[in-house]
Amino acid sequence: MPWDELTDEQREIRELVRELARERVAPRAAEIDASHEFPWDVVELFREHEIFGLLFDEEWGGTGTGTLLALVAIEEVSKVCATSGLLLAVQELGSLGLKLAGTQEQRERYLPRVASGESLCAYALTEAGSGSDSAAMRTTARRDGDDYVLNGSKRFITNAGVAQLYTVFAKTDPDAGHDGISAFVVEADTPGFEVTRLEPKMGISGSTTGELAFDGMRVPAANLLGEEGDGFRIAMRILDRSRPGVAAQALGIAQGATDYALEYAKTRETMGRPIAQHQLIQAKLADMETECEAARGLLYRFGRMADDGVDGPELTKASAMAKLKCGDVAMAVSTEAVQILGGYGYIREYPVERFMRDAKITQIYEGTQEIQRLVIAREMLRESRAFLLAGVG
Ligand SMILES: Cc1cc2nc3c(=O)[nH]c(=O)nc-3n(C[C@H](O)[C@H](O)[C@H](O)COP(=O)(O)OP(=O)(O)OC[C@H]3O[C@@H](n4cnc5c(N)ncnc54)[C@H](O)[C@@H]3O)c2cc1C
Questions:
Q1: Hey, which residues does 148 pair with through a beta bridge?
Q2: Which of 96, 300, 341, 348 is least crowded, fewest Cβ atoms below 10 Å from its Cβ?
Q3: Does the model's pTM come out above 0.85?
């Protein structure tokens, strides 16, 4: 058996997810992409096989198998269908607020139905005028008796219209900058909540991306996450832990593209032999495989750190590095896969053009690659390596 860093139990679960992905999700992937329809059948499949549970502790009905395995599951599904991999990544993104900052009562109320997949969830931070600069948001939340009244809108929200639970960020004190933002759990059937638009996209076509409007929407104060003013810190802590989910999606795309290109190269012949026998093609394949493995190293390292209870700046940096590397590898490797297939790579009949379109979003959402670099550099500048200067000068 090839060397494997996962434990026997983790390997067994990965095998189950891999088989499910290959046998049940892969045959649907091209259709999901072409139809632009949300894959409710894949959601149902994940519910039946308790795949959403891989993201949650046993206390909430999950498997309690940890972060590394959750990332491996997202990678395995994304190898065949990035939209389906995103179902898992966003279930994590949308529920992390509850996991990290929810009260016992809030968690008991919501997490079991999210862990089973009965309710899908979403994370609503971005607005038309505030993406990377999320603190510039305009949505407001005003306390009124036992409720907060929310007014404003959110843009580009994954799972818009299919999620039942949204983690929504709004300004409770518009003059207090980062400290004036608060986080709420919002149920989709709350009066004043509306999905006003769904976006057609380049890739991840089966996933919904939409605009939310809040018009005098009353949210019970009991749905405030943490304290008033904690919202920005909660949003950033969520992203620290959710970005690796996007990294896992990206890595799955990259490995899926590499595996497909390899098999194609063994069968396509030019100049009297399979293109896999041409050294320039071999060099591409070697670079693609090496880049995937390097990206996997950073991603799994994050998973092990999270499972060991590491938190704070060290985890922030590891998360940003995993997202940066995996996203860039997904884009570069899927582009090379298209090149290896030549003209066939460019047409819809072959999956690599879908991989290439799906890869691009992993360099954009949950913080662009530029923002990841800012985060990594910020943490580097915070760290002390003063010993290097000792004795100089
Ligand atoms: C398909 C899709 C799904 C999404 N899902 C969600 C979701 O579920 N929830 C959610 O809240 N948001 C979601 N987003 C929003 C996404 O996170 C933002 O689009 C992203 O953070 C970038 O913000 P922006 O689009 O406003 O770009 P901008 O912030 O306007 O950035 C434009 C460009 O400038 C660069 N830039 C910005 N600031 C700096 C800086 N200080 N230094 C250097 N370069 C900089 C950026 O990297 C980018 O290249 C989604 C977006 C898409 C397209």
A1: 143, 219
A2: 348
A3: yes
CA of residue 371 to ligand 1 center, whole Å: 9
Q: 3-class DSSP state for residue 259? A: helix
Give the CA count within 13 Å in the CB-facing half-sphere of 240. Answer: 22
Per-residue pLDDT tens for 54-100? 999 999 999 999 999 999 999 999 999 999 999 999 999 999 999 99
Ligand 1, atom 4, residue with closest C-alpha: 156
**Residue 224 CA to ligand 1 centre (angstroms):** 25
d(CA 141, CA 132): 21
Residue 348 — φ and ψ, nearest 5°?
-65, -20
- 324 vs 246: CA distance, rounded Å: 10
**HEC string of 296-357?**
HHHHHHHHHHHHCCCCCHHHHHHHHHHHHHHHHHHHHHHHHHHHHCHHHHHCCCCCHHHHHH
Cβ atoms of residues 72 and 17 within 8 Å: yes
* DSSP class of 197: E
Q: Is 165 helix (H, G, I), strand (E, B) or coil?
A: strand
- Looking at residue 4, the DSSP 8-state letter turns out to be -
Q: Is the CB of 368 under 6 A from ligand 1?
A: yes
364 lines ligand 1 (CB under 6 A): yes
Q: Is the pLDDT of residue 296 over 80?
A: yes
Q: How far is the centre of ligand 1, averaged over its atoms, from the C-alpha of 266 (Å)?
A: 39
Query: Kind of pairing, strands 224-225 and 269-270?
Result: unpaired
Element spanning 370, H or E: helix 369-382
Q: What value does the mean pLDDT of the chain take?
A: 97
Q: Which residues in the chain belong to E strands, given as ranges?
A: 121-124, 140-144, 147-158, 165-171, 181-187, 193-198, 209-220, 224-225, 269-270, 273-274
